[in-house]
Amino acid sequence: MAYVITDTCTKDELCVQACPGGLHPPKQDEAGFAEAPQLYVQPDDCIDCGACVPVCPTNSIFVLDELPAESAKFAAINAAHYN
Question: Tens digits of per-residue pLDDT, 46-70?
Answer without folding.
Answer: 899 999 999 999 999 999 999 999 9
